[in-house]
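Budget justification note: compute hours in this period were largely spent on complex prediction jobs such as the one shown. Inputs:
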Amino acid sequence: MKKLSARRRHPLAALVVLLFALAATGGLYAVFAPAEAAKADSSAQSLQIDEGKRLFAVGCSSCHGLNGEGSSTGPSLAGVGSAAVDFQVGTGRMPAQQPGAQVLKKPNIYSQDDIDAMAAFVASLGPGPVTPTKDQYTSTETDAISKGGELFRTNCSQCHNFAGAGGALTQGKFAPSLENVDAKHIYEAMQTGPQNMPSFPDTTMPEKQKQEIVAFVRYQANDAPNPGGLSLGSLGPVTEGLFGWIFGLGVLIAIAIWVAAHTTKAKKS
Amino acid sequence: MSHDMSDDKLPADTAEGHGEVAAADNPFADPGLPAHEVRRTDIDERAAKRAERHVSLLFIVSMLATVGFIASYVSIDPDKIVYIFPLGHISAMNFALGMTLGVALFCIGAGAVHWARTLMSDVEHPAERHPIEADDEVRADVIEQFKTGAGESGFGRRKMIRNTLIGSMALVPLSGVMLLRDLGPLPEKSLDSTAWSEATPAMPIQLINMNTNEPMKAEDIGIGSLTFAMPGPSALRPNGLQESDEDFQQQIAKDALMLIRIQPEDIKDAQSAALGFEGVLAYSKICTHVGCPISLYEQQTHHALCPCHQSTFDLSDGARVIFGPAGHPLPQLKISTDSLGYLVATGDFSHPVGPSFWERSE
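Corresponding output:
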């Protein structure tokens, strides 16, 4: 002890004390803090977010920024939620194939696990609509289709046409056909309002009503009978008129020409 | 086939036409008609009988099809859906009616055509063409008769008769014009106001969500969302508008409302922002061009498009018309919240809803 106290005024004494103090704090931190950190790091969710961040950096960051903060070419993703990622990537709209009035649907290149990882990463940026589960977008009610039809005509048919065949909007934009769209993606589109579609949040259109609309759209695309035979795309008078004029009248004219041109004559051969 | 042909009745193959042959000195000489060619049914009685049976068969099929039409109309359940291969799930009745009526009409036509082609005479009858006008002698005679008649009637001399005749002839068409009155009565002031006009700041009317039939709060309307609303209970309609009300159709057409929410700093028109509540804006859903329902709302551009004639309104700028034939911006409703936080209207639309009309006040 004498040795120690004799050197307490040594010029390097302060440095030694400082080193001891740092070692003590570091040691204490090593004892307490890392236990929690290690537990969090190994959780599945955290690993998924890390994986999502890696995929995001490769596929999305050139437009949306490395941390989803957005840039001049892509909006910020804070608060869009996992449902928006699941819809946009799941239908192949994101990553966008080219800039333009409307980002088009194309084959999806990601596996569902990759999409879930990216969705988890984007969801960690801010709270937003969560990817729905199957029982959220599947209705069990028996009258869901008829109720859904009524809701569809009030909320959706103005853009997507009375049978969900889609329609034109302004300046090259359009409302796509709903014919081959996944039930989950229809539900997510209503939740998140992709591109220029308005959103229909649970506050103004409860989950049950979204289920009914999904049921109606899927019924319309798959099972709805077609009382007249040919639907001609369910587009209304344009295709019907075109069909009538070109095929109906065309066939009649062809028959008239055939009748007039072929008259049986008896000839000596 | 050739065994029942009566070869001796066939004309010689070198049958000549009865026109002139174009000569070297006159290339445009009338070539006349080609030689008449007889049909098998003209010279073969058995072929003619067979054709007759074919025609009758077609007419009989038509009769049977008509009977089938009536039978399917009576017997088939209109709601019955059947699967028919290339057509898919279709209405059994539609299919039966269409097929039987189609067959009935087609067989009449086909029978008539077959009759005309095989049995009716097809000998050509040339008809000479003549100048259309009458010859000079006839025309001079008609003009002379007209002058005589005009002179005898005294039409030019008795001016009172002439003028009253012209007057009566001129007035007769007015009866037709008067009948147009049946297109009335004129709407007068009924188009100026809607059910929202009963709302006052003291007695506001709640906005009812068309999906849930419940009133809604301002925070329910998310940014980028679209909601449709109708007027709630008021002094005149304590239960709100009911489908059994006599004026139901007119009211839903005039009251229709779309609610959107825009970031307050993105609203370009200060007056429009003041009519809304914290960025929630309530616009009429009826196009000001010819009154189509218009709610093709693009949430990024804030444009609302009319599907009929592509009138486009900028909802962030007081629903100004930015494209198309509409003459007025969309009317906006002044909204606020009541003590419980529910969205309410405190007055009628900013100007009359829908297309222009004669009595429109602006």
